[in-house]
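Suppose you are handed a protein chain with no further information: no name, no annotation, nothing but its sequence. What can you learn? This example shows the usual starting point.
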Amino acid sequence: MTSMFDQYNKTLKRDESSTKSSSVTPTTSSGYISVRMSQEAPIFSKLKMNISMPHVINHLVVSNGWLMLVMANNVVFRMQLTDINRSDEVALEKYTAGQEIARVFLDPLGAHLLIALVPKSTQFVPELLYLHRNQSKPKRLDKFRDHEITCVAFNYENDSETSTGPILLGTSRGLIFEIELAVESEKVVHNNWKQVFDIGRNENIGITGIEYFRVPNTNEYIVLATSVDRLYKFQETIKSDERQPLQSIFNSYLNVPEDIQDFHEIKKAAKGKATKLRVCYDYKSHFPRSFGWITEPCIFYGEMDSKCDNPARIVQNKQITLPESEGATVPVAFALTDFHAILVYPDHLAAISLLNYQIVYEEFISENFGPLLNAVRDYRENVIYVYSTKVIFRIKVTKEERNVWRIYMEKGEFDSALKYARENPAHLDIVLRRQAEQCFTRAEFLESARLYAETQASFEGICLKFLEINENEALMIFLKKRLEGLKAQDKSQITMLVVWMVELYLTEIARKSEHQDQVRVLQRDFDAFMNTPRVVECMKTNRGVIYDLMASHGDSHNLATLAGVNRDFENVVNQHIAQGKFLEALAVLRSQNRPELFYKYAPILMEDIPRETIAAAMVQGKRLDAVKLLPTLIVIESDTHVAEIIRYLEFCVHSMGCTETAIHNFLIQLYAQHRAEKLMIFLETQGKDISMIHYDVHYALRVCRQHNVPEACVFLQCLLEMWHQAVELALTVNTKLAQHTASMAPDKDLRRKLWLRIAEHEIRGREDVKEALELLQECDLLRIEDLLPFFSDFERIDHFKDAICDALKEYNLKIQEQRRDMDESAKSAEKVRSELQTFRNRSVTISPADLCSICSACILIRPFFLFPCGHKFHEDCLEKHLTPQLSPEVAQRLSGLKMRLSMLGAGQTVSGSDAQGAREALKEEIQSITASDCVFCGEMTIETIDKPFISDWDRVRNDWE
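A reasonable first move is to predict its three-dimensional structure. Written in structure tokens, the prediction is:
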């Protein structure tokens, strides 16, 4: 037995080394480089496992790398294929007396083996044995006594090697059982054993195959079961807390009539031939990719997808007719791969494509190996084994999907073809070309263009195809896709495609101008195209070409849009102006935020569209400097220009609060020249404080004189305090203006002189006494005697009698008032002298208990002052308290006086009488400052009532900190 293992190990290593030594050769196709085998290996090849068996092989099962053989001497041989040291034999002779081994079943983990026994004579009944991988003795499952087990559906999601999880068993009489087997301390425990369904409805229709699986991430279960001529499907969503979940799948089918159950029937199936069910399981998703059920006439094949919209989870199903074969019509076994079915005949192997039903592999087996019995697949290791009575073959599958893309392409299933061609650029290009050609034939030009753009097909040829049928939209899609695929260094090609795309877009927009909905869609696409980084980069060097192209189409909208994208408004404005499209040029200026462009082009636009230009400037508001716009505002060719310029200047002054002298001066000039009625209103609103006005008064006066606006000249001369000139000029207009001007003079004497000038102007020459007397009523500064010199010497006195009498009466009243004032003053002086005499005889008594009102010390201990109000202060206390309240000038004078007094007391060289007199004078002056008033109730204290208690807050804050 050891030599058999050694031979197997050598064969395995030889197979691996042959695989590693394969060489590759690069080949080119359609501009791509593909890599393939120098001598491409066939999809299917058989490798004989060099194992010498001492007995004939009756059965073989493989799962999870574990190989289990049942030989003719009723011995089970177990071996782990990756570690030949893990192998043993289990004898079954004492369990098979009078019986033979009909079938063996191994779970996906390779841990649980079920052996179905059938009797050789009527003295025995069918039985079922269970053998765990770690046990050396099988166990009879008594509950299945008298039931011939024909198939088992293991749980593919089970990951326990001590328990099978819920499984289903089918019998030769059509019964389906649910059971869970577990190993506990060398004992086999039966859990949840129960019959769940009877396919034959007591007619003993044998079950030939059964599988079950759960839809991922759901509680939905699907069971597939086959008889000789029928495939049944049971599907149910069960509760998660079911003790026997598999039984729940069948509950809803128990009372359903057989004729409405979900099954597929092969009517020509040979009743005497056993059929087989196989699934191609995907361990990544825990769900089958496909299933196959083989009968004598065909293979019923179905593809499954857990994510499909079909509730049955079956994407499609079809019947594949079995190929004709010499000596056998129905294979003895078969196995499913992703794209092929491997058919096992007694003397040869064949593989048929599940896509185009062609035989892709066929190989005969030498008679020396004995007839082939079966094919099994290890789904976890993805390996297929075929065995005869003497040998075991391992079927090697090499890139079986290599031609799948071509098959799908020939069938027109391009989505599937692209899926399998995506890893090979050459294959992908072929599929895309074929799909694009088909779309073109069906007049699906847009999709065809999108597909052509992903291929390496001739650029010129594809463009011509769409140009010949005038399909610009499809051509645009093609060009756009090709543009996206170009590299940054392909600058010339990028430029060509961008310019061509712009031309096509502009042409299509112009052609569909009557259909606004279509134009909006095209415009949106064009805007997106122009904003792509590649196009923006191309625009930097080819901007003029694009502008000229848009200008040739008269597309002002896209010109403006392009200028916005590239911030190149100047070029666009120039083109609009050159074409006389001033409104479009103004629209571009309004859409940008560079004031210098507005300053540059506004004078040109002002000539033709003054109203719109001024409106645009007003919208810009403070973003524009009004002074820099003055070149625009000097374009005065018509009344419209004047009106619009004045409107803008008024907007600047009144709405924006512009204080620039040039703007105010210009507005005054326009008012004086064209709108004199508005000039005085403007000047008056600006005020009469010359320091607050924003125009040049001298310039304004010169302009007003130039354009003969006398009222404004009078107003401006008053501002300049040219009162005499103002009155003289006002007299040339009317007397009222002169009188108003004279009344505004700030000085009384000046006003009198001005009024005298007005009186002289009014009296001389006309000598109208009545008007002269009215002047006396207008101005109270004039008297009749002031006016008399202006009259003629021959004027009759009778005309002035009333006025002279009134003047004499007024003088008499004033004399009387002055006499009363003198009498009152004499009485007041007499009263003061009397009070002074009283004060000379007045005295105040000071007691030793009297205290200083400031320091509260005895008042008699130092020189002091006593005020009539009763407050008493030490001289030094009063001076100290009063000094902070003095003004800086008085405080400085007090300090100087004290210094001079101290210097006299220090013995300076001054005669005795002079020194005494000087000291007395200084003391008297010091006392006049310090003792002038009571510091508590005098006027100085009242004047400081609103003075803050604390003036230096910084010092106080620092003290608090």
